[in-house]
Amino acid sequence: MDAGEAVKVWDLPTRIFHWAILLLVVTSWRTAEMRAMDWHYISGVSALGLIVFRLVWGFVGGSTARFSDFLRSPAIVLRYIRRGQGAQASPGHNPAGGYSVVAMLVALIGQIGTGLFAADIDGLDSGPLSYLVTFDQARLAASLHGLFFNGLLILIALHLLAIIWYRIRHGRKLVGPMVTGRDAQLAASTASVTSHGPVRLIVAIMFAALLAWWIGQGLRLPNG
Ligand code: HEM
Ligand code: HEM
Prior knowledge:
The protein contains 8 helices and 2 strands.
């Protein structure tokens, strides 16, 4: 690698996933507030597709996107936190950050999953899978949907605080790399993210899109 060339830390699909999920969370929030429920479902089911994609990408994607790359044992996380190694930079999520990613993904899955089964009080606005449960269960899903959203907002606030903390405390600029994929603050000797050809990307996108579309149809086929 040439001196001064920034190390590649995030592959393009992971970056697109990140900024698209941000957009869809905001859109889902706004459309729910405005009771524009048709748009809320489109936005929510698109978020479902993105999450399915990210889960698949966690197994077959670029090295720093893989769960095996950033899910370390609790002992390693504790050691990391105790020694305060926040400034020690390497590509990908640090041991503590890895679990915050998981928390965010779980919250998003809970948000979307409860939305699929939710129904509003008069049963008019309902998720595509609500017909599979009783009305009371669909109302419970709607309450949980509201609760998950509060949890998600807290996690997002912590996410932003952590990014500001790394900037102030350790001088780490994390946002730029999530945009460009490259991190100029890492030593040129650091290993770059390793990615693979387009085949697994295409298969992952097709799988995620089809599954989200099918769930959005209420698990029914067009003529079924
Ligand atoms: C990123 C994903 C999502 C976010 C951030 C989100 C957010 C919200 C919020 C803030 C509300 C209002 C809650 C309240 O009034 O207490 C809501 C309501 C609702 N959402 Fe979502 N939602 C998401 C995904 C989905 C999905 C995938 C579906 C189903 C396709 C869905 C179906 C519903 C329904 C049916 C309601 C009305 C519930 C009621 O009025 O009691 N949402 N959503
Ligand atoms: C709805 C709001 C947001 C959600 C749900 C969200 C979610 C996530 C997730 C799931 C990751 C892990 C990436 C992966 O491995 O797939 C991540 C990482 C990241 N996010 Fe966000 N994010 C949000 C808003 C933001 C905003 C507004 C910024 C910046 C201003 C931001 C900056 C970053 C950065 C820099 C990372 C990489 C952190 C690192 O270096 O370990 N995020 N975010």
